[in-house]
Here is the input.
Amino acid sequence: MVAGGGADGEQGFFIDPTVIADVKPAGPSEQEEIFGPVLAVIKANDYDDAAENSQRHPVGLTGAVYSTDEAKLERAAANFMSAIFT
Here is the structure.
């Protein structure tokens, strides 16, 4: 855990915004739906590895790609859109 993870002490299951780094592909933080302000960071070897990771999940509530390469960002947008409509 890089940041967050605390609770406000009130009744219920409320946590502070949380960032989890170095999440492993097929691990629980990647495979299970976590409802809350949680960001699970998965490092990829390259763009193709990241695209493959994003396509193999049965559930995809949200996803993001961070890059300074405009062509890769456009390709990611097309890949995410094709996954939504298939």
Summary: The longest strand covers residues 18-20.
